[in-house]
Amino acid sequence: MRDGRRDRPVRVLESVRELRATTNPYIVQLVETLDRRDDTEVVLFSFARAIAGRYDVFHVHWPELLMTSAGTPLRRLARRLLTTAFLARLRLTRTPVVRTWHNLARPDGLTRWDHRLLDALERRTRHVIRLTDQTAPPLDVPTSTIVHAHYRDWFDRIEPTAEATRNPRRALYFGLIKPYKGVEQLLAAVTEHPEADLDVRLVGSPSDPTLADQVRVAVAADPRISADLSYADDTTLAAEIAAAALVVLPYKAMHNSGALLLALSLDTPVLAPDNEVNRRLAEEVGEGWLHLFDGTLTIDDLERALKSVAAGPPAARPDLSAREWPESAALHAAAFRASLYP
């Protein structure tokens, strides 16, 4: 600590700007749970606070958003200039950065300036939080594994609109529709097999007009496919998941998935890519909750998972006891303090 008092709360600047209705519930729950602790004081992000405010640690989830989450070229330029000033402040004050490592690689579309800024942020990183021990961050710093906590408490707050009836034929995809998430393969698997007796539902915003057009063409051509191409609030999302027999996540590659945990938190089986992370999760949550496919999703994968769910629904709720928020917040608080006292 700057004043030498190690017993006072660690003041943490979080990379989220504000907690809005559209903010990722994982971030909201983490901030709220940390804020209830006596040993942590949470400050939400603004460039004014980041450059001139008082805090002990900067905690960041997706650092590229510091520079890229602006709608116009002029605003993105301003963000890059402000991020440059912020990183200078971190270096001059020797403020440690704690990074939660969500993705294995940086996103596409970054400029050279963006990469240089991210490199500078990584040089200030003193502790890494990973969501699974299969994540291997490329930084030689202390690392804590803090598993992604569940969403049960979050959705317990929501008053259900009506008692939903599950459609035994329905496979639901929800979330942002991006190329790496494999929605095109899901649509192709269905449209190329008109004999398959199923109902596919897509809920979420496409990342570009081309993807939106592909979904609309499939919906118009095939009565088994329906879509709501807009942001779904929590009440709507809970109702959509409750009406589905299966959530399908046809990702081309998956490492950490909040959508997977969200579906399991709402007691809905999931079909997801076969990898080491998901195999371990399948063992953790219990038999019948997580179904896996290898390679590119096929119609056989979809039909197999739907038939399995119909023939033998799980006897108990998914076991998410290792993913409680108080324990997660305690581990985060320990990581923040460790970054100050290596």
SSE diagram, text form:
Elements: E1 10-14, H1 25-35, E2 40-43, H2 47-52, E3 57-60, H3 65-68, H4 73-93, E4 97-101, H5 112-124, E5 125-130, E6 143-145, H6 152-156, E7 167-174, H7 183-191, E8 199-203, H8 209-221, E9 225-228, H9 234-242, E10 244-248, H10 258-265, E11 270-273, H11 276-285, E12 290-293, H12 299-311, H13 325-340
Parallel strand pairs: 1-2, 1-3, 3-4, 4-5, 5-6, 7-8, 7-10, 8-9, 10-11, 11-12
Helix pairs in contact: 1-13, 4-5, 7-8
CATH class of the largest domain reads Alpha Beta
Please state how the strands of the largest beta sheet are arranged side by side. 2-1-3-4-5-6
CATH homology-level superfamily of the largest domain: Glycogen Phosphorylase B
Number of domains: 2
State the end-to-end distance. Answer: 12 Å
Helix content percent band: 40-55%
Mean pLDDT: 93
* Percentage of residues in strands: 15-25%
Low-pLDDT stretches are none
Organism: Nocardioides luteus
Protein name: Glycosyl transferase
List keywords for this structure.
Rossmann fold, 2 domains, globular, 12 strands, Glycosyl transferase, 13 helices, single chain, 40% helix
Description of the structure:
This is Glycosyl transferase. This protein is α/β, with parallel strands linked by helices and 342 residues long. It has two domains: 10-148 and 324-340, Glycogen Phosphorylase B (Rossmann fold, 3-Layer(aba) Sandwich); 153-311, Rossmann fold (3-Layer(aba) Sandwich). The chain has helices spanning 25-35, 47-52, 65-68, 73-93, 112-124, 152-156, 183-191, 209-221, 234-242, 258-265, 276-285, 299-311, 325-340, and strands at 10-14, 40-43, 57-60, 97-101, 125-130, 143-145, 167-174, 199-203, 225-228, 244-248, 270-273, 290-293. It has a six-stranded parallel β-sheet. The protein has a six-stranded parallel β-sheet with strand order 9-8-7-10-11-12, sandwiched between helices. Helix 1 packs across helix 13, helix 4 packs parallel to helix 5 and helix 7 runs parallel beside helix 8. The protein is globular, with a radius of gyration of 21 Å. It starts with 9 loop residues before the first strand and ends with a helix. The model has no long low-confidence stretch (mean pLDDT 93).
